[in-house]
Design a protein that fits this description.
The complex is a heterodimer of chains A (273) and B (433). By secondary structure, chain A is of the alpha/beta class. Chain A has nine helices and 14 strands. The chains are: A alpha/beta (273), B alpha/beta (433).
Chain lengths: 273, 433
């Protein structure tokens, strides 16, 4: 059977190339002999409840509000999540998954309530730049190396006890203040990382796919030399940025992790050559 | 001002670029209101938009030089090198003869501030789409600032693309508008209404009616905003395109520049030129003479390789470039950087349907060539990664069909800073033989 990947409202939430994540997920299945189709759901369409995986991207304030109200009215995404569908939600998509987010006017707006988190306005400068995240222990066991991405958001997100962060921030701002990034609950993976995130982190793509189809064939049949090279290039660049910021910064801490992550990058880099 | 002019000459003499910005910075440091002083006493036309600024500026400047007022004796002050923020504008104005009309391209984010000082008689608004999002954040914020700029310039005629909902919304703030049906191929930034956030539908009959252009009609499903009736539009039903006026007159464009987007730029330029008193015939004749714009569309020979240079720096730009590419199997080089002027986040590469390149050998290059290679990998386009720009062009030449004659034709598509590096490096490689 074909794996169906819904690309939700790319005309509203697709400002930062995040639709590439759907392309990547489908292609990584096809290369392994698994049929896959991307179902593009435009704002004028109704969201199907029966897809295996949903990808929701980043976008601007007005379209974000429109997307949230449409998803809340239709409830298809809620039904899909109840039935065990996997969701990858990015930036504005991440924010609307929570209990509340910021409306274009700056007031609190009702989110989808699928994640235990709340997004509120921030007085800090907009978070823009390269990110490096060390995945939390639960995901490290799934072959997830250091994650690289590019963040670009104004509001900040507080996690409740029902959501687990994707990981600890080593470069960048992440959810709020440079401590943690993203939110995971059940089969929902929410993150501030653009890039798109799955182009830079092929191992994350495979983790999400394994939630849909079970353990994947090891990467052997897949030529990942270029995606791995990109991962190594961006992570190494971020290490350089950390080093340039000096030992006094938050980024300068955690020498133990440093060595580990650098090793992971080297290994991936080796695979690319 | 004399100080700034002197500095410009000095910075040119010192070999630091073309001297276009250093002198301007000095001028503005000494006199912050210098833009207003330098612009005073001349006719000023400003051109802004995400794509097509430089080309439209050049087309409009040519039209004005040929058939404008006699104030400048055929001389038009312009910043065709693309230095389009206040310092670059001040330099251009300081270097030009007093009283000569000025056609200036202005960075989208700076339009309001420049307009408030330079008091233009015409403001040309081409289009708005995602570009350098790490600097501009949201396209709608730019549209909002444009709307304010239009409101604050009651003396200006705003020449606006009626087919772009964000532009049309911004221009409704203006006192006097010339609406142009210039078309809009990339619509993914205009799906939500800039007025109310409601969905916008595109299609014939969805606008305020009036003559059809290439993309006739759009309207918001939830508020009153819809495509205004154009005064002049691009008619693409004839080869090469023509400008159609609501009076019934038609003017074939006969451009040497390729592509639909340049026909659209020419119609925008023509609308502005008509507003500045140039005759339509003089404008079209003058625009025909333009064959390259700051290196764009130029062909550079590198040994046996004949490389045609194209600029595309965002998805809307790429949407127009696919049409201009030589047919498969002509190789294509794609050069990607992510410096400040490009935007630090090249994830827009995933908004471009590079799958359409299948059948053409591709070479990814530039400082972010790896990002491009991964994009082509997933698009399943046969490709190589060659980080060095000149080496990439040479490599592409070897990937073309074997029987292509003495010259190896290659299309090179670069984004902003990689384009400038390419011009520079290809020029030097040519000199070296």
């Amino acid at each position: 059977v074909s794996v169906s990947i819904a690309l939700v409202y790319p005309d509203l939430l697709g400002t930062y190339g995040d639709s590439g994540n759907a392309t990547i997920l489908a292609q990584r299945l096809r290369w392994r002999g698994q049929e896959a189709e991307v179902v593009t759901v435009l704002a004028a369409d109704s969201v199907p409840a029966g897809c295996d995986l949903y990808v929701i991207g980043g976008g601007e304030d007005l379209p974000q509000g429109l997307a949230a109200s449409k998803l809340n009215a239709g409830r298809s995404l809620h039904r899909a999540v109840d039935n065990g569908a996997v969701v990858l939600a990015i930036c504005a998509g991440f924010q609307i998954m929570g209990e509340k987010f910021v409306s274009p006017g700056g007031e609190p707006s009702e989110g989808l309530g699928l994640l235990d988190c709340a997004t509120v306005p921030s007085r800090a400068p907009r978070a823009i730049g390269e990110m490096l995240v060390e995945p939390s222990p639960p995901w490290q066991g799934h072959g997830l190396g250091v994650l690289t991405g590019f963040e670009n958001h104004g509001a900040v997100t507080e996690l409740g006890p029902g959501a687990h962060p994707v990981g600890e921030v080593r470069l960048g701002v992440g959810n709020k203040d440079g401590t943690v990034e993203g939110a995971v609950a059940g089969r929902i993976w929410a993150t501030y990382m653009h890039g798109p995130v799955l182009a830079r982190n092929p191992h994350l793509a495979d983790l999400l796919l394994s939630w849909v189809v079970g353990p994947l064939t090891p990467l052997a049949p897949l030529d990942d030399s270029e995606p791995d090279a990109l991962h190594a290039e961006r992570a190494q660049r971020a290490f350089g940025e950390r080093r340039a910021r000096g030992p006094g910064s938050r980024a300068g801490r955690s020498a133990r992790w440093w060595g580990k992550a650098a090793g992971a990058v080297r290994r991936r880099g080796d695979g690319a050559s | 001002v004399a100080v700034g002019r002197g500095l410009g000459a000095l910075s040119r003499a010192a070999g630091r670029g073309s001297g276009s910005v250093i002198g301007g910075h000095a001028i503005l440091a000494i006199e912050p209101a210098a833009l207003g002083v330098l612009a005073a006493g001349r006719q000023v036309l400003l051109v802004s938009g995400t794509n097509g600024k430089t080309t439209t500026t050049k087309l409009l400047a040519s039209a004005l030089a040929a058939g404008g007022t006699r104030a400048g004796n055929g001389h038009v002050v312009t910043n065709v090198q693309g230095a389009n923020m206040p310092a670059g504008l001040a330099t251009a104005l300081a270097a030009g003869p007093p009283g000569a009309p000025a056609v200036l391209e202005v960075d989208e984010a700076w339009l309001g501030r420049v307009s408030a000082r330079a008091l233009p008689s015409v403001i040309v608004l081409l289009n708005l789409s995602r570009d350098q999002l790490d600097r501009n954040n949201e396209v709608r914020h730019v549209a909002q600032r444009w709307r304010q700029a239009c409101q604050d310039a009651p003396g200006a005629v705003v020449v606006a693309n009626a087919d772009d909902p964000l532009v049309a919304w911004a221009a409704t703030g203006a006192k006097k508008v010339t609406w142009v049906g210039a078309g809009l191929r990339w619509r993914n930034d205009a799906a939500g209404c800039p007025e109310c956030g409601g969905p916008i539908v595109f299609g014939p009959g969805a606008g305020a009616g009036g003559p059809a252009s290439a993309d006739a009609g759009w309207r918001c499903q939830e508020c009153e905003l819809c495509r205004p009736r154009p005064d002049i539009w691009l008619d693409t039903t004839v080869a090469g395109g023509r400008a159609a006026l609501s009076t019934g007159e038609m003017y074939p464009l006969r451009l040497r520049l390729p592509g639909r987007c340049n026909q659209a730029n020419a119609v925008m330029a023509m609308a502005a030129a008509l507003g500045a008193g140039v005759s339509a015939a003089a404008a079209t004749d003058a625009m025909t003479a333009v064959d390259e714009v700051a290196g764009r569309y130029a062909t550079i020979e590198l040994g046996a390789v004949r490389a045609r240079l194209l600029l595309a720096k965002n998805p809307a730009g790429w949407a127009e470039v696919f049409d201009m590419l030589a047919p498969a199997p002509t190789p294509v080089v794609i050069a990607i950087n992510a410096r400040t002027a490009d935007g630090h986040d090249p994830s827009w590469l995933w908004d471009v349907p590079f799958e359409a390149l299948k059948g053409r050998p591709a070479v990814a290059t530039g400082e972010r060539g790896t990002d491009m290679a991964v994009r082509l990998h997933y698009a399943q386009v046969e490709h190589e990664l060659v980080p060095d720009l000149v080496a990439a062009v040479r490599r592409a030449g070897k990937r073309g069909p074997a029987n292509s004659g003495p010259h190896q034709q290659v299309d090179v598509v670069a984004n902003y800073t990689s384009f400038h590096q390419l011009l520079d490096q290809l020029g030097r490689a040519q000199g070296a033989g």
